[in-house]
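Backbone shape codes:
***
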Amino acid sequence: MTNTVFTLPRPKGNFILGNLPDFGKDPLGFLTKCTYQYSDIVPLRMGFTPVFLLTNPEHIEQVLRDQNLFIRSRAFRSAKMVVGEALLTTEGDTWFRQRRLAQPLFHNKQIASYAEIMVASIVETIDTWQDGKTHDVYVDMGHITLDIFVKTMLSLDLTQEAAKTLVLTVHEGANWFEIKRKQSFLIPNWFPTPENIRIRNVVKQTDKIIYKIIAQRRITGTSKDTKDLLSMLMEVRDAEDGSQMTDKQLRDQIAGFMIAGHETTTSTLSWAWMLLSQHPEVQTKLLAELKEVLDGRLPTLADLPRLRYAEMIVKETLRLYPAAPILSRESTKDCKIGEYQITKGSYFIFAQWVMHRNPRYFENPDIFKPERWTNDLEKQLPRGSYFPFGDGGHMCIGKAFAMMEMVLTLTIIAPKFQLEIEPNHPIVPQATFSLKPKYGIKMIVKKR
């Protein structure tokens, strides 16, 4: 099969490293430039690896929806260093079994039971805020999302030391992932580079905490009222041989959900506060909605359907600052993308950062305008043009959970505090596993 796609125009690259230096220096800027200078499929070379950037929504949707033909790329498989054989990193029958076992945890009825826990965690954090003080909202949102994770997924209150260790794992995992991507994952995980040694040490600290939690739960057992992730995974039995998950399998799932859910939600909430501070007219509309729906009280699960503008703010934040800015896949067989033949083992990348800001699909794409999501805009868009939670079989299992968590956070904090960006603080988007603010987002909190 002839790979004629290589005849397409492409950016020049280094003789040995190809496009890796440009991509590593500024991945978001490089992919944006490629999108507007070349065709729907852009041939690239990352080190020794041929890669194709996809910018046509139909092509992106094709790759996302066929999870057998297009599996997670080397980048995701490399993340097994941190999360092991988790839902986040597995494929095929292993992935399908894990997804089936975890799905009940994210059914609407089960998610609804988490609302009160989320509200309590949010209130507990902002009760420590003082008028006029400067906070790194990226850190504070991280405290909230981690607290919600351990209480809903593990039914626990962690010690301060344990919480710091888990947060460190998430941050170090994201930084390690960024370094590995800049290297195009050419250096194997077993090689003793400083970053590989550091992440192994951090993971060891986290494993001590997780395995201790598992051991204690095996001793105490689970009550009929406990329906968190850990209890469900401990109780489930394989339909074929009746076996249950080992401690290692439980550990991997906990680590996977922590990495996938904590960091992405933390980043999105941080970007939302930045955008709100830059657009007072949006704040005014949000406060008007909260006055009408809540009138000073805390939100409940029953209020969520009426908090439409708050939900639009989250959707618009995810458009401009997608939690996962870049995705990648690898073909398991020879295939065809558009009119071009692609060989087995080819790599594909597509960037939410680019697609979500494309003027073909979004009017005034660089403007923060939550109102664009009225009248079900998402249903009118072509699939593959807006996909903050991915798509197809690998769509984020925690989408509804995350949306509820983010809407509740906005609607609880916004009426109580006005957040203003600290003058001269540098805000730089950094494309790691998630889109995080490289230097945090320092903001002055003022009581309303």
